[in-house]
Amino acid sequence: MPVAGSGHRHGQSPGRPVGGCVTRRRRIADADRSFPEVTEIPDIRPILRGPRLTGALCVGRGHLFDDRLHKEHADARAARHDAARRLCARCPAAPECAALAAQLPAENLQGVWSGRLHEEHQPARKDLAA
Fold it and tell me: Where is region (Disordered) located (predicted)?
């Protein structure tokens, strides 16, 4: 119960708002620290100029094709990549995807492309981790 006129609960420091709420400024500062710093933007022009990949089975399933996810176990990663490869094996856009992958620099190929795993050597992505 708040102490009359004190703005804080009995036994709680006066610097902390009633209810233990964290200020909006603090939440924003914490959120800014959770995103990795982007030091280089990959060249995506070949992707934008490339084929449309009509009927591609990867649409809406991008997480299956990512190289690594934050805090993901090796077994889960292998199962996810196996599912991606199975989709690629029956995908009508596989030839166009393979042609597109052949145009991209090796450092831009990460995860599964046209049924083949291209491993990255950077920190795992946190934004898609389950």
Answer: 1-21
Token readout for 78 is 């292998």
Summarised one tens digit per residue, pLDDT across range 35-71 is 666 677 777 676 667 678 889 999 999 999 998 888 9
The number of distinct structural domains making up the chain is 2
- Give the separation between CA 126 and CA 130, rounded to whole angstroms: 9
- Determine, yes or no, domain membership for 39: no
Q: What is the pLDDT of residues 67-97, one digit of tens each?
A: 888 899 999 999 999 999 999 999 999 999 9
Domain around 90: 45-118
Distance CA 107, CA 43 (A): 10
- 54 CB-side CA count, 13 A: 0
Task: Read off the pLDDT band of 130 (50, 70, 90).
Answer: very low
Q: Is 113 helix (H, G, I), strand (E, B) or coil?
A: strand
**Does some domain include residue 7?**
yes
**29/74 same-domain check:** no
CA 10-14-16 angle, to 5 degrees, is: 100
| Helices 94-103, 74-89: crossing angle, 10 deg rounding | 120
